[in-house]
Specification:
This protein is of the alpha+beta class. It has 19 helices and 25 strands.
């Protein structure tokens, strides 16, 4: 039998991997013991020896209710069930539990229940296990022991283990064992590189038949989605919820989307009073229209389509390479100030100094805090990570901040913070000197929109001379949208200190650096006008770097001469 066929073997759904005690510890023959020891790979057809013959895994087995664990070593080229059958001390303790079922759970790292056919080579060198005894329930059939005794996974293929909550995302029951259907319980599922998520779950045997027959997906951290057809290769150590596809009524869908948009209001309109006033007018008009619409889902999707910014353009590979190099200096800034939690983007300006928005610092400290205390508060509750490119990297190599807050300005919405010196090297600063006094065409933003992994976006600049015209054109698309009148938009249309553009970067992206195609630092993404029923905004803007530098030179001359007047050179960036 080929290794591919062995991987495709699955436990039938009308059978379970929870064994009754007398089955679990049935007498073991001398021949079977020798075979299960795994020292002679030739006795397992189609399995070639790989690595040292005496490669062992140490199991530390804690029986529920017993004070002392059992230590046992077994060949890695075997499965969990056959290893546990050989533990004489375990049999002696459990023999009195006849008629009950056995569950096996890891008690280190992520605590999760193991399938009895789990290959031992996918577990850590030293694995702590807990044996849990439960009463059998009616309707729960027993496993085919012969299947377990004969099962031979491919021990020469890399094994990937990941974790699934035993309760579905919408509180559905997804596992056969009713005792496992409880919030907080997790299953450890294994798969082999090259197979799909669905293949791994179907082979597992502990899930209900709906996992094989229905459409579903895995959800990580309530925001990242993996289709069941994706490969397991990159899932090592990750934790998911299983969510079945479900159709909702148009009324429910429209209302949920509206509520989501209202909750996610982070763009700092406080700095632009005119925009905030007009935004409230728009919200009021939209709610009236929404309540009066007969087909709410269609009404919502129409506006969603009209306002979504679908940018179709080609980007030279050289620009992609340039942005990739620059992205290493863009950081994910997060805070937890006594329950006041949030995130934003920042970037290394020069040496230890990083840039973000002034309103981000204000959000960190909260309302009513004396500005003399901001430096200490920000230092105590904020951290920065420059390696957040995938979910599992979110907490890696984090920097703390010095209690330093001396260079900032509310009107230009910028703030300079200072990283603490750590063992990890600070990424290179992005400031390389003066940049073009005027710019148009495409610009590029790098940041963490919605607190997600680092991403880039190309945007079309709206030149100052065209801002009013562009906004009037948008106003015509939505007759009741009052935003872009000459009076209300004056703060932006006549402001020489900001760049205006169309972008889908929104929550969490404040503080993102803005570049041109040559990699020059043009500005910093600061805010956008929320349309309240979708995550997009109608217009986005941020302060120009030349205006920020001019302000620093005038108001913080000593710091400017020491830092900003000595930009990073291209040779240093390459190093």
């Amino acid at each position: 039998m080929s290794s591919k066929n062995r991987r495709s073997q699955r436990i039938p759904f009308n059978e379970k991997t929870n064994l009754r005690m007398e089955q679990f510890f049935s007498p073991v023959s001398k021949e079977e013991t020798e075979k299960d020891s795994g020292n002679d790979a030739k006795e397992k057809p189609g399995i070639q020896a790989k690595g040292p013959k005496d490669s062992k895994i140490k199991l530390l087995i804690q029986v529920e209710g017993e004070s002392r664990p059992i230590e046992y070593s077994h060949s890695k080229k075997d499965i969990l069930y056959r290893a546990l059958k050989c533990v004489g001390a375990l049999k002696a303790i459990m023999i009195s539990q006849s008629g009950k079922q056995v569950l096996v759970r890891t008690i280190q790292g992520i605590e999760a229940y193991l399938a009895l056919h789990s290959p031992l080579h996918c577990l850590p060198e030293v694995t702590r296990l807990q044996i849990i005894v439960i009463r059998s329930q009616s309707g729960e059939t027993e496993v085919n022991i012969n299947w377990l005794l004969d099962y031979s996974p491919d021990f020469n293929t890399n094994c990937v283990k990941f974790y699934i909550h035993t309760v579905g995302k919408r509180a559905e029951r997804i596992v056969q064992c009713r005792k496992l259907h409880k919030q907080g319980n997790k299953l450890c599922v294994y798969g082999f590189e090259g197979e799909t998520i669905k293949e791994a779950l179907c082979r597992d045997g502990r899930f209900l038949p709906s996992v094989e027959n229905s459409v579903w997906k895995l959800v990580e951290n309530q925001e990242y989605i993996l289709e069941s057809s994706q490969l397991v290769d990159d899932l090592e150590g990750r934790l998911f919820e299983l969510e079945f596809e479900k159709r909702s009524s148009s009324r429910t869908a429209g209302a949920q989307n509206l509520e989501t948009g209202e909750r996610n209001t982070e763009a700092s309109l406080d700095l632009y009073p005119g925009l905030k006033t007009e935004s409230e007018k728009f919200k009021e008009n939209f709610e009236k229209e929404f309540k009066g619409a007969k087909r709410k889902a269609r009404f919502f999707n129409l506006h969603k389509t009209n306002f979504s910014k679908l940018v179709k353009d080609s980007t030279p590979v050289t620009v992609h390479k340039l942005l990739y190099n620059l992205s290493s200096s863009v950081g994910y800034l997060s805070w937890n100030n006594k329950g006041n939690m949030g995130c934003a983007t920042c970037f290394v300006f020069h040496k230890q100094f990083i840039f973000t928005c002034w309103h981000v610092v204000r959000d960190i400290v909260g309302k009513g805090v004396d500005q003399t205390k901001w430096a200490t508060l920000v230092s105590e509750c904020t951290k920065v990570s420059f390696g957040y490119e995938t979910v599992i990297q979110k907490e890696e190599k984090c920097f703390s901040l010095e209690p330093w807050f001396e260079v900032a300005d509310e009107s230009l919405d910028y703030a300079v913070l200072k990283l603490k010196i750590e063992k990890v090297q600070v990424p290179c600063g992005l400031y390389k000197g003066l940049h073009p006094a005027s710019f148009d065409g495409l610009i590029y933003i790098i940041g963490h929109p919605e607190g997600k992994p680092k991403s880039t976006e190309s945007c079309l600049v709206i030149p100052q001379a065209q801002r009013e015209q562009e906004c009037l054109a948008r106003q015509a698309e939505v007759p009741f949208f009052h935003m872009f009148t000459q009076r209300s938009f004056q703060e932006i249309s006549e402001n020489n200190d900001v760049i205006t553009y169309h972008s889908s970067f929104f929550f969490g992206a404040s503080g993102s650096p803005v570049f041109n195609a040559e990699g020059s630092l043009l500005g910093m993404h600061a805010a956008g006008l929320s349309i309240n029923f979708h995550k997009d905004t109608l217009i986005e803007f941020g302060p120009c770097m030349r205006s920020i530098l001019s302000h620093m030179e005038k108001n913080f001359p000593k710091w400017y001469l020491e830092i900003a007047a000595n930009p990073i050179q291209d040779e240093e960036m390459e190093d």
